[in-house]
């Protein structure tokens, strides 16, 4: 899906992450993943706090535990 002979992407829309060392504990949700022209995977993130903030980051940085940690999604249905 993401390039010639590559392995499946480790990040999917809906996955959530927190930046290591963020004093505010902001949670980011992946909304889109794509391959750039130089064959690097990137992800668009949106803040789940409904402030409308977005970021674009490489998937390699997003999956590096020195920079981001996965956050379990919280069920919102009752």
Report on the structure:
With 78 residues, the protein is mainly beta. The chain has one domain (16-71). 5% of the residues lie in helices and 37% in strands. The protein has 1 helix and 5 strands. The protein has one helix at 59-62; strands at residues 16-19, 27-35, 41-47, 54-58, 68-71. A 5-stranded antiparallel β-sheet has the order 4-3-2-1-5. A hairpin with a 6-residue loop joins strand 3 and strand 4. The longest helix is centred in the C-terminal third of the chain and has 4 residues, at 59-62. The mean pLDDT is 87.
Largest sheet: 5 strands, antiparallel
Span of the ends, CA to CA: 35 Å
Q: How many helices? A: 1
Query: Gyration radius, to the nearest Å?
Result: 13 Å
Numbering strands along the chain, what is their spatial order in the largest sheet? 4-3-2-1-5
Q: Shape from CA axes? A: globular
Q: On the 0-100 scale, what is the average pLDDT?
A: 87
Low-pLDDT segments: none
Query: What class, by secondary structure content?
Result: mainly beta
Which oligomeric state applies?
A: single chain
Q: Kindly estimate the percentage of residues that lie in beta strands according to DSSP.
A: 35-45%
Helical content, roughly? under 10%
């Amino acid at each position: 899906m993401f390039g010639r002979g590559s392995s499946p992407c480790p990040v999917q829309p809906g996955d959530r992450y927190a930046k290591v060392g963020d004093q505010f504990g902001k949670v980011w949700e992946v909304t889109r993943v794509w391959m750039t022209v130089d064959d690097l995977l990137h992800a668009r993130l949106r803040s789940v706090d409904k402030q409308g903030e977005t970021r674009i980051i490489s998937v390699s940085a997003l999956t590096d535990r020195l920079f981001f940690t996965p956050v379990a999604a919280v069920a919102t249905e009752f």
